[in-house]
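re: that chain from earlier
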Amino acid sequence: MNWWKENKLQRRIYVCAAALTAAAFGWYALTRAGSLAGLVAAGLSCLLFALCLLRGVDHALCFFTAEPLPSPDARLGRRSLRRDKRHPWERIVLFMLITRLFLFAVGYAFHAAGGVYEGGIWDTLRACWLKSDSPSYLGIAENWYVTEGDPRFHIVFFPLYPICIRALNFLTGNSFVSAMLVSSFCAIAAAILMYELAALDYEREAALRAVKFLFLTPAAFFFAAPMTESLFLLCSLLCVYLVRKKHYLWGCLFGALAAFTRSVGVLLLAFVFVEWLYGLLRARRMGTLPAEKNTRIRQGICMLLVPLGLAAYVAINYAVTGDPLKFMQYQREHWSQGFGLFFETAAYQTEYALSTAAEGNLRQLFGLWLPNLAYSFGALGLMAAAAKRLRPSYTAYFLAYFVIAIGATWLLSAPRYLAACFPLALALAALADTRRKDALATFLSLAGLVAYLAMYVNGYPVY
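^ sequence. v structure.
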C-alpha cells in the first residue's frame, strides 16, 4: 500500500492503461455480435496485453532511472574472455547447419510418408518447401511486378527478398535454389547476430539459449523456407544491434531494409525511439546533455530513415500500377485483409476453431486455428512473464509488432509472423534459466517444430 501511495507516476500510468484497455474492450463487446467463447478469448487477449504493457512500463520507469547494469563480461575470467569462448561463432554456425539439414531431412521424410512421389529428391524438396507465399516471391524474382493476370496481385509482397533471389540467380540460374540459399545464409547470419545482441545483456549460456529457442520454436522452419522471414530477421537484428552499439545511421539504414522486406519492419521505430529516449534521459541525469546535444539530434534524425523502406515500396506500387496504395486495395479485395483489433482476431479465430472442431475438419483445426491461437496467446503470456527481464525497448517493439501483425482482419499466419519477432526468443531464454526449465522448453519446442513441419509439408493449411 505504501508503494501505491508513493509512486504517483506509476499509479497514473496504471490507471490510464487500465481505463484505455477497459474502454477498448467495452466498445468491442457492445458493438460486436459474437459468441460467448469469442468474447472470452478477446477478453483474455486484452488482459494479457494489458499485463504485458503494465509490467513493461513499470520496468521501463525503473530502468530509465537506474544506473546501467555492468557488462556480463565483467564477471568473466581471462580464459572465458578469449575470442573462441566469448564469441562462439563456429559453434553457432554448426548448430545452424545441423538444424537446416534436420529440417530438410525431416520434411522430406514426412512428405514421402504421405504417399506422394515427386520423381526424385530435388522435385520432392521443391514440393515440400515451395508452398504458401513462396511461389509469389519466386514469380517477382523472375518477372518483377506485373499488371495483368493473377500475378498482378504479387504487388502485395515486398521486394527486397525477390531482389536478393534475382541477384543470386546470376550464379545459380535457378530461383528456387537461390531462394533457399538466401534464406539459409540469412538465418545463419541472424543466429550469430542474435547471440551477439543477447550477449550485451546476458551471460554466454543465456545468449546461446536465445539462439536455440529462436530457431527451434514450432514455426522456426519458416527460416529455412523460401520466404522473407530469415531476411527480415537479419535486417531487424542488424538494426537493433547497431543502434545498441550507438551506430544509429547504419542501424536505421538496416531498419529501412527491414521495412523494405516486410511492412512491420517500420515498427523498429518503436525500438529505436525508446533507445534514443533512454540515452537522452541518461545524458540529462548525468549532466552531459549540453555536450551531447548535437549527437542526440543526429541520432533523432537518423530515425527518419527507417520509414524510407516502406516509402520505397509505396513508390514501386505507384510506378507499377499508378496507385501508391494499390497493395492495400488488393489486400482488402482479394484477401479480405485490413487493419483490425488484435483481440478481435482472438475472437474470430476461437470461433472458427470451435466450428471446425464441430465439423470434424481436423486438418484446418490443427493446421490453422489452434497454432494461430497458441502462438498469439503464448506470445502475450511469455512477454508478460518476462517483461521485467528484458530491455524496455524490446518490449515496446514487441507490443507495437503484436498490435499490427496480429490485428489483421483475416489472420492466417500468426506463427510465421511471431517467429520473426526476436524479443520472444529472449523472453523464453530468460525464463528457462534452470536446467529443468531449459530441458522442458527445448523438448516442447522441438516436438512442436516437428509436428508443425509435418503438417506444412503435407499440405495442411499452414501459412
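The mean pLDDT is 92.
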